[in-house]
Amino acid sequence: MGRITNLREFIGIIKDKASQSKAAVLSNPKNITLRLAILRATTHDPFNPPNQKHLNTLLSYGHSSRATAAAAIEALMDRLQTTRDSSVALKCLITVHHIIKHGSFILQDQLSVYPSAGGRNYLKLSNFRDHTSPLTWELSSWVRWYALYLEHLLSTSRILGFFLCSTSSTIEKDKEEEKVSSLTNTDLLRELNSLVSLLEEICKRPELLHIHGNKLVDEVMGLVGEDYLSSINEVWVRVNEVSQRLSCLSFGESVELACGLKRLEDCKEKLFVLSTRKKALIETLWVLIVEMKDGLSRACVEDRRLVVMGTRDRVSKSARFGDRVVSYGDSVSLASGKFGFSNRFMFSIQESVQSCA
């Protein structure tokens, strides 16, 4: 097995050298440095993540013109879409993640709008397969999941109005609590649900069957782990805000919130293993979630009691009215019909949450 691995490494090095030589000869002189930087950051080595020096070179293209940043994104996406090598694809996605986290605004902006006019969804790699070896086959599952996760990350960032895990979004994050407090219930729940969907996607990561200790996968999980902590911060802000609005929520909003809290709790066990940092904040969040669920349940019981009491009162009045104008049998039939009609529309939050499961 070691011999095969060494042979693969040798073939990978030859491919990388050939690609770099081809880029140096055929590329537009203005783009040679860019093409070489991308090739050097996304080599065929299946064991090690991109070199930080080459990533920094790519990130530097975000400090120039918008046209230069657009060319960098286009070249990176072209590399991602044309490769059939799982190592190269995974490194392209890692590079995308670094742009989201550490890129300048102009580079992030070009990433979020590419392609500018329709075209393919450049991170949609659900059909990606590398059949070369058991290792590349397993890495392929990480490519598929990681691409989908980054799509969720970009989508959530659009809904929040800033790149969730970006180090350059500190100004927006400093104003986060003030902004969240001014949101309508609908927008608040929309943002919370989007964050829950992102955490759910983290929980769908592939199992480590034969690649324990693979530095390439470790790099992916390190980046995702940092996103998890950023996401938990944002979830905390919104859960804390909505907890103060429980009495102001409509029935539909209460159901939506209860479903979101249940989905979040279902992620609890798998999320625990991602990081031991911010332990106090995370434990406080789970306590608050339990308290909110209990509050919603109590409100549900009270609402059911009031509805039933109101229905019985209406039934009683209908029966007395029936005694005066129609026969006894007709009055019972009318009352029974009214009671059934009320039940048909009287859904509890608990019943609705079960339908979300």
Which key features would you list for this structure?
357 residues, mainly alpha, Serine Threonine Protein Phosphatase 5, Tetratricopeptide repeat, 16 helices, 75% helix, clathrin heavy chain binding, golgi apparatus, Putative ENTH/ANTH/VHS superfamily protein
Description:
The chain is mainly alpha-helical and 357 residues long. The protein has one domain: Serine Threonine Protein Phosphatase 5, Tetratricopeptide repeat. It has helices at 2-26, 32-41, 52-59, 66-82, 86-102, 105-113, 134-160, 170-174, 176-181, 185-203, 215-243, 251-266, 268-272, 279-325, 328-345, 349-356. The protein is globular.
Cα Rg: 27 Å
- Biggest sheet architecture: none
- Write the H/E string, N to C: HHHHHHHHHHHHHHHH
Quick check: average pLDDT?
79
When the domains are counted, the total is 1
What's the CATH class, please? Mainly Alpha
CATH topology: Serine Threonine Protein Phosphatase 5, Tetratricopeptide repeat
**How many helices?**
16
Please give the alpha-carbon distance between the first and last residues: 45 Å
Q: Estimate the global geometry from the Cα principal axes.
A: globular
β content, as a range? under 5%
Helix content: over 70%
What is the count of β-strands? Answer: 0
Q: Which parts are unreliable, with pLDDT below 50 for 5 consecutive residues or more?
A: 321-346
CATH architecture: Alpha Horseshoe
The helix-and-strand class reads mainly alpha
Organism: Tripterygium wilfordii (Thunder God vine)
Main location: cytoplasm
Subcellular location: Cytoplasmic vesicle, Clathrin-coated vesicle; Golgi apparatus; Membrane, Clathrin-coated pit
Protein name: Putative ENTH/ANTH/VHS superfamily protein
